[in-house]
Amino acid sequence: MKYSKRLSSMQESPIRKLVPYAIDAKSRGTKVYHLNIGQPDIKTPKGFFDAVKNFDSEVLEYAVSPGIPELIHAIRDYYTTYDMHFNDSQILITNGGSEALLFTIMAVCDPGDNILAPEPFYTNYNGFSQCANVTVKPITTKAEEGFHLPSKEEILSRIDPNTKAILLSNPGNPTGTVYTRAEIDMIAQIAKENDLWIIADEVYREFVYDGLEYTSFGNIEEIEDRVVIIDSVSKRYSACGARIGSIACKNTGLISQILKLCQGRLCVATLEQIGAVELYKTPTSYFKEVNNEYRKRRDVLYDELMKVDGVICKKPTGAFYIVAKLPVENAEEFVVWMLNEFSDENETVMPCPAEGFYATEGLGRDEVRLAYILNEKDLHRAAILLKEGLEKYVTLKKSEVLAGSEA
Amino acid sequence: MKYSKRLSSMQESPIRKLVPYAIDAKSRGTKVYHLNIGQPDIKTPKGFFDAVKNFDSEVLEYAVSPGIPELIHAIRDYYTTYDMHFNDSQILITNGGSEALLFTIMAVCDPGDNILAPEPFYTNYNGFSQCANVTVKPITTKAEEGFHLPSKEEILSRIDPNTKAILLSNPGNPTGTVYTRAEIDMIAQIAKENDLWIIADEVYREFVYDGLEYTSFGNIEEIEDRVVIIDSVSKRYSACGARIGSIACKNTGLISQILKLCQGRLCVATLEQIGAVELYKTPTSYFKEVNNEYRKRRDVLYDELMKVDGVICKKPTGAFYIVAKLPVENAEEFVVWMLNEFSDENETVMPCPAEGFYATEGLGRDEVRLAYILNEKDLHRAAILLKEGLEKYVTLKKSEVLAGSEA
C-alpha cells in the first residue's frame, strides 16, 4: 500500500526521537533528568479543575464551533491588558496552539507556497507546513548573536513570489530570544512592503526576564489586518494537557475562512473550554511568581553551562529554553552517549539535539535545546550532570582522535 | 490580503448555515424543534464525569501523542467484542472522528488525488479533503433505492489513476443506510483489485435496527492491510463534547505515518481521555436501551413523514438520520419558510437541507436530512409540525403557480 508523499518526507519529532534511549536507561535503574521536553512542573491554577468538577449537565454536548462565548470573552479581556483590542468575532478557540498554527497556514497558503521563519524554529512549524504542502524557508540566526534577526536585506533576499507569510515565535522556542522593538518594527515593515501575513506565535508572552520590554505584533496598528496571533494556555498556565489554544486576528475575512475549518472539526472539547475560562481569571501575581521561578532556573542552568570550556550561548531572556552550541561534533551522538554510557551516582540528564530545529541542512548539529522546567534543586543537579558528562565526553573524543592518529 | 484558494472554495457547513434564521425565529418567541443537528439528548454515561472529577494530579500535563495506554487498551478490548483484533500499536487516539478522518486523508493522498465516496455523504468529508487539496468523487445513490450502492461497474467507472481510497460511513450519515454483506464484499473486492485504501467511518456501528446483521470492514481478513477504521465516542456514548476519536489500522506503516501528525499536534486532551476510558466500560445493556429508544423515534418520524403525499424515502435501518425527498423544488427555501413564515401554536421545526451532502451539482435540492435526536414526545410534535408545514407550503406553492399562470 502507498502512503502520501507529504507525510513520508516528514521527520520524526526530534524531541521524541531519542525517548527509547531514555526508557532503556531507566530500565537499567538510571535516573534521567529530562531537559528535552517543555512540560512544566508548575501547578495548574486550581480554578481549572474546580470548573471542570462543577460541570453538572448530564449530556456532554458539542460546544459551538468558534469556541464558547465565555472563553472568547475571557481571552478578549486578557488581550486588553496588553493593549490589544479584539472584538469577540475576531477570536477563535482551537485544539491547542498546534491547531491554531495548522489552520492559519492552511488559510494563507496553497500547495507550493512558502513561509519564512527564523531558524532554529519550533520543529512542528515544519510538520504543520508539510501537512499543507507548504515549505518553511529559514532565516538563519546564530547562537553567537543570541539568535537575534539578521539584517533587513538578508531577510528580503529570502522572499520569493510564493512567500505568503512570516512565522515567528516571540519569545522564541527553542531559542528563548525576545525580539527587540526594532526587530518587530523591521518585520512589520517587511510584511507591509511585501504583502505578507505575520503569524505571531506568542504562547510564551509572559515569560520575559530581566525587566525587558515585550512588544507584541498585536501592538502595531498599521499592520493589524495582516497579523494573526497564535496563543495557548499550555505554558502560560501550565495546562499543556488541556489543549486550548486560540487565534486572534483583526482581518475578519481571514477569521471567516478559518471558521470553516473550525466548523469542519465541529468543536474543541467542551469541559476543557469551561476550565480554561477560569485560567484566564488567574491573578497577575501568579505570573510574577512563575516568572521569578523560571528566571532563577535559567540562571542556575546558564551559570553551570558557562563553566564548560567551548560552550557558546548568550543568556536567553524569555520562554524556558536555552539553545547552546557544545564543544562536540554531533550533539545527537552526545545525547545518546549520555543516556547509554554516562552516569554519575546512577543519574544522567537528557538534552534535546537541536539539529531538528533547523531547516538548513547541517546547521545545529553541535547544538542542544535545554528546557529549564525542573525545580531548582533538580535542575541544579541536572546542570552539574550535564557539565560533568560534557567534560568527560570531550576528553574521551580527544583521546579517540589521538588514538586514531597514533594508529 | 489574500487567502488560500483551498479554503476560499470550501462551502459553509450546510448544517449550520441556516442557524441565523432559527435564532431570528426564537427571538420572535417561536419554539424551534431542531431536527437539523446530530446532537443526541441521551445521557452521557456517568463514569465519564466521575473519572474526570476524580483526577487528582496538580499539573495538567501533556498526554502521550498516540493516546494514553488505558484508552488504547479499552478500545482494543471493545473491538474484540466485534471480532476485530488489533494490537495496541495499531490504534491512535484523535481529536474526535474529525481529526481521524483528516489525518487519514493526509496520510493516503497527495494534492490532486481523489477519494470515492457514496453521495449523499457527511458534508465534512468534502471539507477535510479540500484542506488536503484532495477531491471527493461521488458515487451517487438514490432515495428511491434506500441509498444503497449502485453496481460494481458503475463504481469502477469512477476510479481513475489518482483515486487513492474509498470513504464510506456505515451506518450512513446522512442516509441511515446499513450496507449489506454483499455491498461490503463488493467494496472490498474493488479496493483489492484497484489497490485502494478503504476508510471506514463506523461511528454509528451500534445504531442498527430491525435485527439487521452489521458487517464491519474490519471483519474481512483479506483486506486488513488496506482498511482504516474511523471511530468516535460522540454518538455511541452521547459524548459529542469530549472530542475523542480513534484510528484503528493493521497496516503499521500507515499508523507510523499518521503518528507523525499526532506528534505534531502533541496530544489529545488528557482529562477527556481519562473520562473516555470509562465510557468503554459501559455495559452492553446501555446500547440495547439506547438502540431501542432510537428505533422508536425513527418509527415516529418515518410514520408521520409517510402520511405526506409526495414524500419519498425508504425506512432507514441505522444511525439516527433520515434523508427524505420532499414534494418541493428547493428544500432550503422550504426550511427558511418554516423558520420565517410558518408556526403552529408558536412552534416550528428545522430540518437540514440535503443539497450540501451531495457533491454532484443540483442533486439533493429537494431533499432534507432529519436527525431523530429528540425524545419521543418532542419528536412526535416535530413530525406533526413538519407534516403540517409541508402540506401548507405545497398548497401555497401551487396557488402561486396558478396565480402566475393566470397573470
UniProtKB/TrEMBL annotation, chains A, B:
GO molecular function ontology, one term from the record: transaminase activity
InterPro entries: Aminotransferase_I/II_large, AspAT/PAT-like, NHTrfase_class1_PyrdxlP-BS, PyrdxlP-dep_Trfase, PyrdxlP-dep_Trfase_major, PyrdxlP-dep_Trfase_small
Pfam families xref list: Aminotran_1_2
The protein's required cofactors: pyridoxal 5'-phosphate
Limits of the Aminotransferase class I/classII large domain: 31-341
Listed EC numbers: 2.6.1.-
Residue intervals passing through the bilayer: none
Record's keyword terms, sorted: Aminotransferase, Pyridoxal phosphate, Transferase
UniProt-listed PANTHER family: ASPARTATE AMINOTRANSFERASE
Protein name: Aminotransferase
Organism: Romboutsia weinsteinii
Lineage, top ranks: Bacteria, Bacillati, Bacillota, Clostridia, Peptostreptococcales
